[in-house]
Amino acid sequence: MKIMKHLLKSTILLLLLSVVISCSDSDGPIDPPVVLPEYNFNVLGTLDGAYYLAPTESLTEGSLSFINNGTQLDADQAARIISTGGYIYSLNYGTGILTQLELNDDGGYDVINEINAGLSVGTNRPRYKLADENTIMVYNVVTEPVTNAADEIIDNICTLRLSTVALPSLSISNLTEFVIPQTDNAKLGGAIGYHPMRVDAPIISGDKIYFGIMHLDMSDPTVPPPFRKPKQTGLETLVFDYPSMSNGVIVESSDAAGHTNGYRAPSMHVDENGDIYQSNWFMSGNSFDLSAGDKTVITKLSNGVYTDYLFNVSDALGLTSNIATVGWFYVGDGIGYMPIQLEDEGNYYSDNSWSVARIDLNAKTAVKLNVPLSGLFSYESGVVDDGKFYMAVSPTGGDAYVYEFDPSSTSADGFLTGLELDGNNIQVDGVYY
Amino acid sequence: MQKIKTTETVGGITTYNTESTSDSDLGYGLAGSYKVLENLMLNASVEKAYRLPESDEILGDGLNISSTTLLRPESSLNVNIGFGLKLFQENKHKLNIDSNLFYRDVSDLIQLYQYESSAFIYINFDEVLMKGIDGKIQYAFKDLLTFTQTVSYLNPIVKSDKDEYGNDNITYDTTLPNTPLFQTNSEARFHFKNLIQKQSKSFAYANLNYTDEYYRYSDIIGKFNKDKIPSQLVVNCGIGYTFPKENFALSFDANNLFNEQVFDNYAIQKPGRAFYIKATFRIM
Questions:
Q1: Where are the alpha helices (DSSP H) in chain B?
Q2: Which helix or strand (DSSP H or E) is residue B209 part of?
Q3: Among A194, A85, A180, which Cα is nearest to A136's?
Q4: Is B55 helix (H, G, I), strand (E, B) or coil?
Q5: Most C-beta atoms within 10 A of its C-beta, which of A89, A322, A332, B262?
Q6: Contact call for B217 and A69, based on CB within 8 A
Q7: Contact at 8 Å (CB) between A163 and A115?
Q8: Which residues in chain B have Cβ-Cβ distances shorter than 8 Å to A396?
Q9: Contacts of A318 (CB under 8 A, 6+ apart)
């Protein structure tokens, strides 16, 4: 009882004191209002399999560290990010959960909504892409082996399952199923030919939607994907009428070879004329036979078919090393930036063997920029802001920055270093609005 | 000496190779005790220990994890210093206190390394310095009651200044993630004689096991929503009865009474609430 009384007295005293302080305060200088930082961009960092997102005011100056900063994203295997309409959408690749996040005043992100996006397409590892500002497309290819009487796999049925997620409500609708045909070209080679086991990088132009395709030898289910042999000849793209998702066809080009689906960096972009420009993925260390002489190219699709446009990026760069890519970024007016892997510099996955090239789709010129070599295989997003292109380059054992690339410069030094990053073993995989 | 067979298939032709590797390391151990007083014992030990790679670490899983002949044994220098104190041994209240300080300098830790997307191999990587303390207090009242309290605190620090790819390691000199740091165990055990029947023995116990929360990834990276393995409090209890002729005993155990979700540091779930009845017959 005594203690209670004592507590009560202390509380009253404190209250009185605070009233007095408050009164005297109002006569003195006014506290400056708390100025919250104006966050304009978001940066995705990864370390030891964990993914972190942190906001930044600027990409051109200052520094951003993930030490005691940023929000860990739910990422069973990886986090893939889309930024649109004032929200961040984070896909947990491994559970299929799509989370809608909104930046708060503390520099963290509040969870606004969450759905299981993988469920509708039958996987916990769906792929997804922003189709337009109100729609995310989620898709997966389900591969079912066809066996003979001796239980040997003689074919595979590859079914694309695709659904749309309306933004910002996150409601799922329009499930489409389509059995992707194996072209005559894909039937050649391998034990049972090559099968279209993955699609990605969908892009819409006019009344068509285009999906890039990955073909692998699917004859032995015990072989993990990195060791499956890819199709060595020709390019293929899956085209549907949009938005009906009807009349699905595969269109082909024999101008080059490789996958056309990109990896985390997109392989396809639409230019100001509505034409689609597509890069191929043909890389040493991915069981591609480089002796076949195939190169990294950009092809053009228009009105649902490949055109005769061909931009041989490998030749245009004129380097002694073979080069490869998985995807690229388009800035505008025919200018893009392409992460390129230099075969002579080491393994595409674990070595500092990637650079960045400025590519000009109209002039068909390419120049390797003098940025430090780094690992860009998993790099997923850059930002175009005020006519400049920004992406992070975090090299092994070197200093990491967001680089500002000037699309009007054809110089190999046409860039500036901007926002300073942690470096060390924190890899930055993307910058976003 | 490790010998493994590897296969390589090129153009449909499979070739088999036998690969072997051998390694020799000298380990040692030294332990001593000193009775300072009748009821106080000091213990110390030093050990240079090696852990040989497990078969699945060398052979892989035949799917995503490749085989390797490059693995070396994991090595550690272990130093322990402790004491045991026994108080009131002649009394009906007895008290034993034991404590142990330990120091482990581990190098060549065997860890899984991803060298391609979806492709792994075990490598020797990482150095970790672990310091910690274990403590145990045991109180006994006659032959009726024993109460045991243990406490364990571990402070593991990453001492690798490079990561497995050769990058400078930003987590150098910080706490090793994904490792339980603080654990306690409390147990009360009652013994009864001649309960229900003469010459019978019976017991009852309750046990509280606590593991404090810990971070799944480095505790210095990120600020919000960091993955934590939550704290776990597991309550177990049981009773047992040995019949007078001592040839038949019955016991009943209830594990994880409150069905707490429990997992180890690789998020592998352990069983929830479980009940066990055990009957023991002795035919002699």
A1: 55-59
A2: strand B201-211
A3: A85
A4: helix
A5: A89
A6: no
A7: no
A8: 165-167
A9: none
